[in-house]
Amino acid sequence: MAAIASSEDRAAQKVDSGRRLGVPLWLVSYLQAAPLFLILGFFLLLPIAMIGVVSFWDYDFAGLYPDFLTTNYTDTLGSWVTWKTYLNTLKFTAIVWALTLVIGFWVAYFLAFHIRRTTTQTILFLVCTVPFMTSNIIRMIAWIPVLGRNGLVNSALIEMGLIPKPIEWLLYSDFAVVLAMVHLYTLFMVTPIFNTLMRIDRSLLEAARDAGASGWQVLWNVVVPLAKPGMAIGTIFVVTLVMADFSTVQVMSGGQSASIALMMKNQMSLLQYPAAAANAVVLLILVLLMVSAILRVVDIRKEL
């Protein structure tokens, strides 16, 4: 009832302001949304439109030439190297998403249901955010002395007699890339899931237990369905971040692996901006399709 009353009050205020200014009522909402539309248009839509325009330009080693060519798209989509790179990027995305979802859900579940005091919840949540006080590059490079041939992991395993020689694939491999990405992006899954779990009415859990449900049944039939909006938001964060990540792939794989973002970075370093723009457009369409598929499965409007 309070929410309905507040919405009616806002509507009444909007009508009164429109009458005082002599502005038609249908125009009031558009005027209120105009600043946000201008900001998004200038900083989001205009850059995307420019990338789309440049993707049709011609280029050579000397410069860029405004034109309308589809060569950049045919070269991009017609190359098996590009398809292999996209598949490699999707592989990283799927693995990192699965790991961050599992880890993020259980961390959020522990904070939401096993920590009773709000102060303790806040402190533990802030502890999770401590690594974000440094840059991604520093946190990523910190894994090198841990996973290296003479790093902490290999040295400890050799001293304990578990392995006769250092494990080579711990660093500069797909394993290192996935590990670094999970470390970097798990919090983006924890935060929205934790926010969703904190909104669950605890009486629903008590009712399920009173009905004879076991702990796992309560978790699977009550908690998980209600946590889906937060899981969907975290999925959108993680998927978009992994798809656009090039520094982690470049550093942690030692140049032995590739991603579509790294391909675009290399094209830009060679001044092949139209080709990079075409790859960016294709990547944007792919990410938008993935996000739209997530939104069709889970309704996240209740979390917004």
Walkthrough of the structure:
The chain is mainly alpha-helical and 304 residues long. Helices cover 74% and strands 1% of the residues. The chain is built from 14 helices and 2 strands, in the order ααββαααααααααααα. The chain has helices spanning 2-21, 25-54, 71-77, 80-114, 118-129, 136-141, 144-147, 152-159, 174-198, 202-210, 215-243, 247-252, 260-269, 273-297, and strands at 58-59, 64-65. The chain has a two-stranded antiparallel sheet. A hairpin with a 4-residue loop joins strand 1 (58-59) and strand 2 (64-65). Helix 9 (174-198) packs across helix 11 (215-243). It is flat, with a radius of gyration of 25 Å. Mean pLDDT is 85; it is low at 1-5.
Radius of gyration: 25 Å
> Biggest sheet: strands, sense, closure?
2 strands, antiparallel
Poorly predicted residue ranges: 1-5
Strand content: under 5%
N-to-C SSE series?
Answer: HHEEHHHHHHHHHHHH
Oligomeric status of the shown chains? single chain
Shape: flat
Number of strands: 2
User: Strand order, biggest sheet?
Assistant: 1-2
Count of alpha/pi helices: 14
Helix vs. strand class: mainly alpha
pLDDT average, as an integer?
Answer: 85
The rounded distance between the terminal residues' Cα atoms is: 20 Å
Estimate the helix proportion, in percent: over 70%
